Records
---
Amino acid sequence: MFKILRRQEMAQGTVVLNEIEAPLIANKAKPGQFVILKANETGERIPLTMADSDPKKGTITVIYMVVGKSTALFRDLKEGEGYQDVIGPLGRPTHIEKVGNVLCVGGGTGVAVLHPITRALKEAGNHVTCVIGARNKDLLILEDEMRAASTILHVCTDDGSYGHHGFVTQVVEDVLKKETIQQAVAIGPVPMMKAVCNITKAFNVPTLVSLNPIMIDGTGMCGGCRVTVGEKTKFACVDGPEFDGHQVNFDELMLRLKAYCEEEKHCYEDYCQLTD
Amino acid sequence: MAEKTEQAGRVPMPEQAPEIRKRNFDEVPTGYTVKMAQEEAARCIQCKKPGCVTGCPVGVDIPGFIHLITEGDLTGAIRHIWTRNALPAVCGRVCPQEAQCEGNCVMAKKGKPIAIGNLERFCADYEREHGTGALPPKAASTGKRVAVVGSGPSGLTVAGDLILKGHDVTVMEAFHKPGGVLVYGIPEFRLPKAIVAQEVNFLERLGVNVQCDTVVGRTVSLDELFEQGYDAIYLGVGAGLPRFMNIPGENLIGILSANEYLTRANLMKAYKFPEVDTPIPHGKNVVVLGAGNVAMDSARTAMRLGADTVRIVYRRSREEMPARKAEIHHAEEEGIEFFLLTNPVEYLGDASGRLTGMRCLKMELGEPDDSGRRRPIPIKGSEFEMETDLVIVAVGSGANPLLTQSTSDLALNKRGYIVTEPETGKTSKRGVWAGGDIVTGAATVILAMGAGRASANSMHSYLTLGW
Ligand SMILES: Cc1cc2nc3c(=O)[nH]c(=O)nc-3n(C[C@H](O)[C@H](O)[C@H](O)COP(=O)(O)OP(=O)(O)OC[C@H]3O[C@@H](n4cnc5c(N)ncnc54)[C@H](O)[C@@H]3O)c2cc1C
Ligand code: SF4
Ligand code: FES
């Protein structure tokens, strides 16, 4: 068993943080990589990109939104209980390099994945401008952590309950108009990543995105995670999860994420809405 | 039309009726009784130069164990098999006997080979149900540590051999359950998972440490394993890279690799959804591309999941179908249709990205190709459409690069498989052996086990004498 050492609820209990004892994985994990978790014997294998790892403590941290049957099962695990299986670290780590000015954009729980990447980019000597957003103030996560990890932080809410009123894309466009950015990173719901990429493309700013297709093994043996990048089929679990956002076929990804909405009418209804 | 598995003269294997079994996941053949086994064993004429043994890749003394069955010494029979084959309950069920022992049996000339597979299976099942479970003796501890990467038949064979020789053995498996293809690929109705679990449990009782959830190359590297004090490593990671058709529309919803489909069904038990949490697509008109064991397993799984029609689409003819005869026969009995000399050229979908059909071409056979089989060539103007909402692609697999590419000093061939010394399984990296599908490409359970045994012998002499 992989024990949960710390559990914290965020965004009014819709988002949960688990710090999990997994020394072998913690020892190897790098920003951008993911793990596959399985709660119990009958559970599904669910991939989650790590929000943090601590080789000294031997722990990894995941932050997830409760969207279906499996994440609801995860939510019910208490401190001291644990996951039957945690497998990783999987996928390629983010390429961290000093390029100058970097723009990091995060939406929803994507902010959790963006956090360690932002921190590493700043530690590498970059000037990091961050834009994070949520539907409303209550759903915003990791604001303080992101402020500490970035050089400048902009916060937006769709309903204007906090920070800029509007989508992250509006702030992204403002930033790109005013500053010269060498590299962008966008992580969040698929429609958000797609919208951000449309803007950064117009400004010719290379943009990394982190994709979350349906996975089983996470080691390249099933091909369930295939995505189209630059007209080529890639397996997100081994070729990604990060890709050049200007090459990704986001529309196909959004459709493929709904593959099981029929089978799991109840379980995945919320999830499907999220990707619309 | 169907090749008869129940050849005249043989004691027929009792099995579930096709109409019933095609909708359940219980094992199809139910096994011989003692009386049936003895009756079948009595047909063996105990050849002086038995053809069957030469046909067996691991040289099981077939007349020897069959004789023990006729004597009523069932405990002796299984122990006799074990000296050559550690997984008879598995092999009796999945080996291509018609191309091995049974194909080489003198009685095969008259069309009545001894049912060696059925007898092997019988001995193993009898022991599992009635045996004492007593462990074989183990050599004194050598203090040497061995890591076996991958828990398929080849890794399990190495683990079993080396633990008995007194070494300390840890098996590392990427998945959350051990068994390799035996648990994630081959379905319950052909190889009950309880049998695989019991084989693994037997190794654990002998002292083998089975560590799942460990992706070697990611969680830990080969060099780190040596730093941790392992003295030798065996790589039995299989050929886990799905091949697709690379034709337009392949990323539509409703097109899965057989690896994904079977992993969902077998490893994740998705056929029990929603009792378990992993879903699996339920197609109405299912098409399976390919005609090997993997294709038959996929087609029969789709039928059991309630499909209206299940079609095997294969670009060559019946003679070239690589599946075991028994599987083809069982598939036909269960109502699976065969569209031979047919090749898909494009998948068709609707606005929501879901598969609706497939455009195909009819083929004819031309001159033999590299594989010695006649090359299928498209017939001009033969295009037609086939309605389907689920396609399972079972056209072969390749070498998964995850581990091999994270290990720089491991020599690979141009297709990405590990190069080894044939007799010993030694790789180019000191202290590392490899065998099974990751060396040969997708092959069979028994060949993977044979490679494991050869490597185990070589590893033992390295651990006791040196490289
Ligand atoms: C659906 C199907 C049906 C088949 N039917 C038959 C049949 O009827 N008869 C027959 O003889 N053969 C059959 N075969 C072929 C046979 O199963 C294989 O040839 C055999 O299992 C190969 O054994 P192996 O030990 O080399 O590898 P595998 O059985 O593939 O096992 C490899 C194991 O290594 C693990 N692994 C991979 N990479 C890593 C890593 N980096 N770290 C840790 N673990 C790793 C995998 O998860 C897997 O569990 C079938 C195959 C399939 C897929
Ligand atoms: S070849 Fe056939 S008849 Fe002869 S010993 Fe083997 S099983 Fe018996
Ligand atoms: S999840 Fe199976 S290949 Fe990526």
Note: The pocket of iron/sulfur cluster (ligand 2) is lined by residues B 44-47, 50-52, 62-63, 66, 105-107, 114, 116 (CB under 6 Å).
---
Amino acid sequence: MTFKNIICPVCGASCDDIQVEIAGGGIRVKNACRMGNAKFQEISSPHRIREPMIRDGGRMRAASFDEAVDRAASILVEAKRPLIFMGCETSSEAMEVGLHLGEHLGAVVDSNSTVCHGPTAMGIQEAGRVGATAGQAKSRADLAVYWGSNPLESMPRHMSRYAVFPRGHWTRRGRFDRTVITVDPRRTITAENSDLHIQLKPNTDYELISALLTLLHGKRPHDSVEEITGISISRMEEMLEMMKSSNFGVIYVGLGIASSYGKHRNAEAAFNLVKELNATTKFVIGALRGHCNVAGFNQIASYLYGYPFGLDFSRGYPRYNPGEFTAVDLLREKDVDAALIVSADLVSHFPADCAEYLAEIPVACIEIAPTPTTMISDVIIPGVIDAMECDGTFYRLDDVPIYFRPFTTSPFSFTESNEDTMRRIFDRTRDSLKSSNLAEE
Amino acid sequence: MIRSANMIIKNGYVFDPLNGLDGEVMDLFIRDGRVVGDLRAREMRDAKVIDASGKTVMAGGVDSHAHVAGAKVNAGRLMRPEDHYRSVRERTRLTHSGSGYTTPSVYKQGYDYVAMGYTTVFEGAMPPLEARHTHEEMRATPILDMGAYLVLGNNWFIMRYLKEGDIEKAAAYAAWMLRTHKGYGIKCVNPAGVENWGWAKNVAGLDEPNIHFEVTPREVIRGLAEVNEMLGLPMSLHLHANNLGHPGNWETARDSLMIPSGLAPADRSIVDWPETKLDCRRRQTVYLAHAQFNAYGGTSWRDFSSGVPELARYINQTEDVVIDSGSVPFGPATTMTGDGPAQHDLYVITGQKWSNTDVEMECGSGVLPFLFLKTSPVHSVQWAIGLEVLLLIDDPWKTIMTTDHPNGGVFTRYPDLIAWLMSKRARDETARECNKWAYDRSSLGGVDREISLYEVAVITRANPARTIGIAHRKGHLGPGADGDVTIYDLDPTGLNSNDPSAIRTAFGRPEYTVKDGRIVARRGEIVAVPEGRRFYTTPYVDEDHELEMMADVKEWFKYYTVGFANYPVPERYMKNPTPIAVNRPLEAVVRR
Ligand code: SF4
């Protein structure tokens, strides 16, 4: 069987042209990059978690789905302030249930933004963001600036599908109609393939952006900026001239901006630069999102409750204060006492003290394959792979929602999707909250 | 499924303009969620009875133009935490929590509309590529019946067909797009100009061809208005005119409104048309959005003034036009439109934080926080203009009251607008508090008109429903209408226009909001949370003709970044999808 127009559930590019051929127990994938291909192969991986497990007297044992759901629910209900972490490799529909569950429990609900493009979102809250859907760049852009991002490694098809190589309406010659600038302290492979590499010193993005803004306003930045950033003013002028003389320019920011000194202030400065450039020529800016549905959580949480990540429901209404209600800070301060983690490996990706604390508190997780996080969990429920085994929605890097249809079904008899599993947990918490309320009365 | 019930609303003063009722005391009957002439004895016994004696009864409010769902609304929410900290709603046993004043989250927004007596709300602009997002948000919105207008005024296919003069193909394309994205009607935003914004430019006049496509705003407006009537859509072309937000733009607005003249309105929805006293089908061929932003006089912000008297003069002598007001009640707002270049202009003036999203091959949008101040000369005139457009146009059937939420202000300020419209004293009081330009640079100070409750019913339910072609079931209380009823604690016999605060209170917190025959809100509190319907149109066009058009679409689809197969909106993004079939095969568009 061959399936066409399948969506890849790996990075924010949400490529929707994947072809999957299933024959003889194997799976052949066309059009995906190597990262995507690897994920598709996982569907038949021997590492896949196939049955629910719960911790019993310190040891993990197999359990029925109902038993696992029960235990997950009671962990949440018994906690004073649980953390629900909706990883970005699952559907918006599952995230929606996670948010409802968090509201119901008075929990904190967070997602990967908190450790990746959260500062970018905060930059938007300071400055706004002038952007466009990916097709605008495909048809019009003659200049691409990769700033603190390295798409050839993190989003391998970004250049070929959207930004540099595609032949769009006004960019018929693809790469030949475009100039590429990379701003990165490292000589990455993206930098090697660019027309101009601005190799600034690490953690000086803010200074460089500010200097460009000063030049754009017709003034000369203080000479010290050359020493600070390692870039000569004449080089900056050259870069700015390239930007100003383009017909349609795009900046793609990566974690190099969100995670270096200055964090959301870097993003804010970059957004302001782009806003100002629009008086001269067309310029837009967007984030390269490493995981498929990071953008989704920001969108869903914003329209359901009003904030993009780190939502605290302990007062019965949503509150937002990054640094206070965000997952890393809550774990570090030991401000939560249980966690439900969906499709994310917090133990590997969070700071060590957070990971240690996670090992101390009751944790339930929904996951596809064993990770350090599943190892510290008290309940493990097998995850269903979105876009392959169930349908749903991802928000692409440019916030365009993509509907995905699966080419096979959930391998489990007990659940159809992570959304389904989340609903079962939610229903179970509702039941037990009801009975405990009754007991109080 | 929508659960519904039997109900009797007794002895209220009923204001139902489409049925010619101007405060008659009478009983209303609802069976299975629909208004009927009477109930059988057995049904009477188990019907819910509401005593409305001494109260004002109207059909549920209909907002025909607000920004309540979709990518740009959410861009507003995302960029404005400061708007959310200040305004929160706690969860209850029945309702979800939420936050946001000018850009409320969807639950809060739905409850706030219902608590104010509105039961139907249409989203003013849905970009096709992001239609799934709009539908997701509508799917999450409680209680309200909704729909969304599809943005087509800078669509590559439409511009190409109009340039080639192939109006039939343009119609076939529009029909396919409405079906594909579950859109309700055709919206046209800054025609030809938003495409130029793809190069950071705009168009300067109605006859300036845009870059590359070389179509003019005039050609797009005329073309889409023709397409609209050719398809027989329930709503006329919905126009966001060029040159928005600039001093002196009233002339552009008037000239734009003249473009469709001569066309005959042709609503060919296949629905059960009820027997209302007035014809409940639309008369207009163009529906102008948020007139306030397009009714400016003067030549700069220094000699800024109202252009309403001139604009109203034209509208008063034509039957082709309906406007919604886009009024400004002062206070916080978030401007958001599909008009990218207009938002850039506002950024240049204000230096505010500004978000923009261009949508490939289709349209664009911009979002910018705003605060309308009584101390500001220009804002004060904008306040006056927003009321003038409703008071200087003589026939209320040509006007609809909105704030273009959240552009002019928040929808929860509608009661303030009603008070200003019903009470000269209320206007004078406000004029004294704000900058003197309000009366100096407009004609509002000399306007004595105070609108009646009957006229309030026209501009807040009957006419919005009729204008968008949903009056077969909304905006009136005759047999066959949906059982959506609002009961205000306002005795019309004791109405005193010199007491605006009583008017504000009554309209801000109705006694009851009834949806499909069930009480959903009581004195501002939500008491039931049924799911609403999602309306969209499915226009039929000749099949051969559609095939020819599809060949073009497929050929040009390569410029998109999603595949053709992944472009449509599946029904799973909707709750209670309610398609309206349009154009019987026999009347379908055939090549001339
Ligand atoms: S670029 Fe990203 S979405 Fe596309 S195939 Fe590779 S991993 Fe998948």
Note: Chain B has 19 helices and 26 strands.
---
Amino acid sequence: MNLYETYTVFIPGDSAAVALGANLVAEALLQEANKRCIDIRLIRNGSRGMIWAEPLLEIQTSAGRLAFACTNPEILVELLDTGIFERELDMSVAERIHPSCLGFTEDIPWLKNQNRQTFSRCGIINPLCLDDYQTLGGLSSLKNALEQQPNDIIDAIAASGLRGRGGAAFPAGIKWKTVAECSSPCKYIVCNADEGDSGTYADRLIMEGDPFLLIESMAIAGYATGANKGYIYLRSEYPLARQILDQAIRIAQQKNLLGDSILGSEFNFDIQLFVGAGAYICGEETSLLQSLEGKRGEVRSKPPLPAQEGLFGQPTLIHNVISLCSVPAALVSSGQHYAALGINRSLGTLPFQLSGNIKYAGLVELAFGHSLRYLLDQFGQGTLSGKPLRAVQIGGPLGAYLPDRMLDTNLDYEEFIAIGAGIGHGGIVVFDDTVNLQVQARYAFQFCVEESCGKCTPCRIGAKRGLDNLSTSNDLVLVEALCEVMESGSLCAMGGMTPIPVRSAIHYFPEDFTPTELVS
Amino acid sequence: MHYLGGINTIKTLIKLAVEDNQVLTSALRQLVDKYGFIDSELIPFIADSYNLSKAEVLGVISFYEDFRTTPPLAHVIRICQAEACQALGATTLMAHCKSVGLTNKQNVEIGTVSCLGLCACGPALIHNENLHARVTSAKLDEIIRQTQK
Ligand SMILES: Cc1cc2nc3c(=O)[nH]c(=O)nc-3n(C[C@H](O)[C@H](O)[C@H](O)COP(=O)(O)O)c2cc1C
Ligand code: SF4
Ligand code: FES
């Protein structure tokens, strides 16, 4: 079935596509089509996640969508010159229509070899068209949920094995149950869209490409736990996501997907978008809540847990964007479908994000259990510079730097913890052999100095001392002592996990830490 | 400072935010969205409106990178300096800025940012609200040249 009519053209309105010139391609298309009197319909879809191919242009044909990679206004003119819009295409020569043609999108191995559960619609539909969303299965999960008992939904979430995708990987079912069991009449759903980790963009991609999915998922979470109000805490560095979410929320309110008696049920739920102000620490859940309450984003000590005493002291279910957006997939067949994917205690899929110096960078959603090497080889296919890969940082700025010999570790939360690393939010940053790990370790300390909320001493002072030390004497015994204090004495993972990148850099790349390697 | 609509417009905006039960960070966000900064002269008024001390308001403002108290120049360019962009030469790009004197153009402010979610196509930067990816030194020069027109 083709959702769109023939000769509909898709050019993503996604941030990455736009940053690579998608708006110029779209303008050129409209101008040229006008000039040539060709009747086309342009849709600004989300990104398919093939960032290496952006701006990706797709043309709907009767046989499927034909994809063209890395387009620009010149390529567009060449494409139009082939007469592509004026005749029914002969598919046997489709690939030869233009060198930028990748063939049919559905057949591109890079996409075909993924397991798209959460990102099943992203890049396919017009993100702000609720009809398209519904045509491809949207809202069915919420409609189902509204006919079920809240407890059954929570049981299904627990059965699916879904764990928090924001970094800590805490079982979602337990958190939902805790909030549901609180008797307060006022509860909140808070979506953590602060996505501050370098190397990660899954939250951004789905919010820009399939925003109704987030809205639907938050409504389900609200119904299951008894919350009527939701907040999306979005980082200010995502201006396009802000525009799209703003519009999506307004459309959802108009179409009764949000508001009173949603979709004709007796359940009321509304969402407010809150834009952050440039503080990495506000991704930490209690700091985020402080910020939402109007205060400095200083971390609160736990307990009380946010699930019991969160926003304005009320029970609050706080989840990462991807955790929430995975809810409809997790609820299929009461959790059985999702739980059948993945391995051990890492069930379902994770959208991995290939970043940095890598040839085919982009979002790869896979079930847990493949090795990191499989992911890098099958999808990334080497460095962008063509030089040998030297280090991979996985799990954001608080994640470990790993050398080639550790890449056979399986993508499973516990396996990574066992090697002193973590999967975090699924960001994977590749460095070639020009990287100096002493510089990276120093950056880890520097980042902590800049982003620490300042509440506790090990983090506030420890990071500064570490930075000074790696900038002057390079005394690794002292650095290790600092790491121990930070790890054991910090209130949150900012200070507690900064030792991970530092120690892994020293452990796996000791040759970079000789005094001669001192860089000014 | 001269504001669009004058100081009273801003005060009304703050009053409305309070009446609307908006928290302080929300009101500050509106000010920054609209005027680009929070004038220090407004702090006593904000403190009064929110029933806080001036120190408390300043404490909130100083915590957040976006809440600046100086007006931005016409062009604000922030270059990502986080790890994924480092892997593609973000540090060199910043050094280039300094070496060719791009940092002291009259109407251009060059700063840093930590991740724009463009980590698969770095180095990245944001120029006012416009995003740019795979930025080379030449591309950066061109962006700056455009601002000098
Ligand atoms: C320093 C720090 C930064 C964090 N940043 C984020 C973030 O940007 N996005 C996010 O979802 N979680 C972030 N977290 C994790 C949150 O504290 C929290 O675990 C998460 O929002 C819970 O949602 P989940 O269960 O769906 O993962 C961060 C944690 C720390 C310690
Ligand atoms: S570890 Fe750092 S960021 Fe976390 S509470 Fe302490 S000072 Fe704040
Ligand atoms: S690290 Fe530069 S955009 Fe993410």
Note: The first strand of chain B starts at residue 75 and ends at 80.
